[in-house]
Amino acid sequence: MKSVLPLLLIGFFLHSASTDTHSLKYFYTAVSGDVHFPEFTIVGLVDGVQFMYYDSDMKRVVPKTEWIKEKEGADYWESQTQIATGEQLSFKNNIQIAKERFNQTKSTGVHTYQNMYGCEWDDETGETNGFDQYGYDGKDFLSLDLKNMRYISTAQQALISVQRWNGDRALLENDRQYYTQICTEWLKKYVQYGKSSLERTVSPEVSVLQKGSSSPVECRATGFYPKEVMMSWQKDGQDLNEDVELAETLPNEDGTFQKSSRLTVSTKELAEHQYSCVVDHKSLPERIVKTWDAADNTSIIIGIVVAVIVLVAVIAGVGLFMRKKSKSGPNYGKTSTADSDSDNSGTPVQNA
User: Fold this and answer.
1) Residues 220 and 339 in one domain
2) Domain match, 119 and 255 both
3) What are the φ and ψ backbone dihedral angles of 258, each rounded to 5 degrees?
4) Contact 44, 56 (CB under 8 A)
């Protein structure tokens, strides 16, 4: 993948959850232009763990966890593959329309069209929530206001789609049912499938490092599960909020997570004060406090392999600009068939 393609863990797709909240999220990505990356991908995650994947190169949906392999058979994966290949064909048309909306038809650069949607469920309170967010070229485009059951946007190019979607009461009702009921039902089912894996706890390994005398001091926590973790800094035992840069939590290849935080202070400050990184996680009996010590620092920075899951998406098959589908299915709930049964993701196409 060429560097011109932005890292697709972009801010408007990040949707935080508490430690008691489970989440089901789907990310669609379409890419146009000269880029070494599949033109269309789908990634599905439960509680931040990837459990399914599709791309336009291999042309099939595949399981990514043992628990989904054990619980769903060949028919399930075949039906989802048929849906995904249909989405891929439709998206080719939609990316061209997006470029027209933005006056980019003569552009030879790389363009991305993205959608993230799904739901959350708090197994302590029973509270649920749904979300549907869209982006073009790494910027917010439009999103669903579930409380008021309408789509909203500040982008001029999205107003046509917003008006048409909001004017389709059947579509909005279908969306309401999907995000408040159907999506949650499938989330609960998937959580039950992977309960032993999803509810495990793994403690983080924490290190405090500095590449050079003038570089920021970096605190790294890796290998932890579940995803939620708290990282902070202290100066002489007091909480420190200034000169701190906290990175997003990223997945590791083994299903655990990693996170880092950078502290930028002068060499003089480092020598005169005690700086400590504080990490708190569900797996820990008490929080970890790791104090910076120049004598312990090595010149070799420990490498952490980042499995950057491409969390980007498109609205399948019908696209953000041309038309929008209703959602009702177990997976990404978007298909070009007229079947509306929730067990096979069937939904009718809604024209823009």
Assistant:
1) no
2) no
3) -140, 155
4) no
